[in-house]
Structure formats: structure tokens, C-alpha cells
Hints:
The longest helix has 23 residues, at about 220-240. The strands form two sheets. Strands 2-3-4-1-5 form a five-stranded parallel β-sheet, sandwiched between helices. Strands 6-7 form a two-stranded parallel sheet. The chain folds into three domains: about 5-115, 3-Layer(aba) Sandwich (Rossmann fold), CATH 3.40.50; about 120-180, Helicase, Ruva Protein, domain 3 (Orthogonal Bundle), CATH 1.10.8; about 185-320, Zinc Finger, Delta Prime, domain 3 (Up-down Bundle), CATH 1.20.272.10. Strand 2, helix 2 and strand 3 (about 60-65) form a beta-alpha-beta unit. It has helices at about 10-30, 45-50, 75-85, 100-110, 120-135, 140-150, 155-165, 175-180, 185-195, 200-215, 220-240, 245-255, 255-270, 270-290, 300-320; strands spanning about 5-10, 35-40, 60-65, 90-95, 110-115, 140, 170. The radius of gyration is 25 Å and the shape is globular. The chain is built from 15 helices and seven strands. The N and C termini lie far apart (about 65 Å). Helices cover about 60% and strands about 10% of the residues. The chain is of the alpha/beta class. Helix 6 (about 140-150) packs parallel to helix 8 (about 175-180) and helix 12 packs across helix 13.
Amino acid sequence: MSSLFLFTGPNRYAIRQERRTWEQEFIRKHGEENLQRFFGEALEFRSFVDDVSMMPFLAEKRLTVIQGLPRFTKEHIELLAKEIHPSSIVLFIEPSPDKRLSSSKAFLSLATIKDFPELSEGQLKAWMQKFVADRNATIDSAAVLTLLEIVGTDQDMLSQELEKILLTSTSITVRNVQQMAVPSGEQEIWTLTNMLAVGKRNEALRYASSLLQRGEDAFSLWSVMLWMLKNLVAVHAAHADGETNAGTIASNFGVPFASVRTLMPLAAKAKPESLSRLVDWAAETDIGLKSGMYRATQEAPEEVQSLVDQFIMKTTALSRG
Length: 321
């Protein structure tokens, strides 16, 4: 088996946990003196190869962990794979290697790859239950769903929110989650976009209000609205040209695929003149915010909050013809 390994994939939480397991198990068996850690960008090829080609010192194994891929050439990597001592294990960690580079291709072809994909919703639910149980606590199913709705599916953020909530309760309920959890920026955008796209006016108003009550900046929320409107216009234009493939629209217009898929029903239903009026109003309003027409500050954001509510009202009206 190859002594060259690569941890990769979008699930950075799982990568970090697996790295910790490798290091702890190695130290238990072989001692910390034969564990080395480097940053890839700081590696010098010749000295690194000399190091990993040597026999471990007074131990059966040596583990070398490198965060990030180094700036080696394809030929360097091929030589490295040949020169690694049989008792030396070399682990590179790079969640998203640039597969266009010949060096990355060499790593991917010569190393033993361990991929860490994002978990499915079902896997996340099971993981959250275990995460809490391992800390001698419980979380009910409704609280799990609520946390996913607020925070999203990023395990790093979920683990941080769970640790925070566990400081106040060992029996986590929906109320605990609603009081303590902080939404991620992407999740806020997705949740609001989804509500607006299907015309859930009252739900969107309540959700925006809850964000503001939990400390979300009103100006940031306004920016989220403008971002959503920009994407809606792009999807509407593509649909008007007869394009209905979400992947093609995402690629051609630079709109996230998930947003395209969510916005397509609204884009198909919205009348051009209604959407145009909304864009005109949003543009004029944004100029007014930036020019001082509205008396809105970080300390007194009430006018911006009112504009957010107006935006929700006008956008949800699009889906009603």
C-alpha cells in the first residue's frame, strides 16, 4: 500500500476529526517524537524528500502531516512517491485541490485518496444525535430540524452551535435552539429566498423579524434582499429566452444552482412589468439609503427594517400574478 495519502473533499469538519484520530492513534502507538507537522506552502522539496526518506528515529513508523499542497512540480511529486521510506507515512490535507494543475493531478493519481463528502440530511440528523449523546445530553427530533433550518448543513457551524447550547441545557428543545442558534449567512439567504419565491408573505415577515430580534444587522438583511433580486432578474431573463435548465442558467449567469432551482417557479410566473417596477423601486431605495434620504443608522435602523418589510410585500406579490 502507498505511504502517500491525501485527505480531500468539502467536509472540513470530518477531515479535521479524521486527522485528529490519525495523530492520536499514532502518538499512542509510536510516540509524539515521530509525528511531524508542516504547512504545504512552506515546504522546500529537497529537504522535505530527504526528511521523509529517512528511517524513523527509534520507532517503527513516522507520520508527517502537511496542511495544504506544496508548490511542487509533477516531477517532484512523482519522485517523492518513490523516495518515501517504507516506515514513513506522509499525509497531505487539501479539501479542494486545483485539478487543473499537473501537480494536483499527480497527487490525485499517486496518493491513496480519502474523500470526505458532505453528509446527507439523514446522516446529519444521526450525527447530531450522537454528538449530543456523547456529551451525556439529549436533543429532540424537532430541535434537530430547527437547528438545521437555522444554521444549515455545515458540520463545523452545527458543532459550534451545539456546544454553545449545551452550556445552557443538557436536554435541547426547539426553544433552546431558537433562543441560542445564530443563522449562517448562506442559510439566511436560502431560507428567505425560498419563502419569497413561493409567496409565503407572512412567514417571510416573521422570519425577517426574528433575524433582527436575534441581532442580525438590518443593512445586511437589505443587502441579502438585493442579492436575491439580482438573481431573480437573471433567472427571469434566462427563462424569457426559453432556457429552463437550472445548470445551464447557473453556469451562464453566475447564479448559484440552488438559487436558480428555487427561483425558477417565481421567475416563470412573474410578469416583466411587475418585476421591472420592483427593480426600479429597489434601486431608488438603495440610492436613498446611500445618499441619506432615509434616516437610518446602525443605532436606529427602523427605516431600513421598514424597507425590508416593503421588499417582502412587493416580492411575494410577484408570485400572485
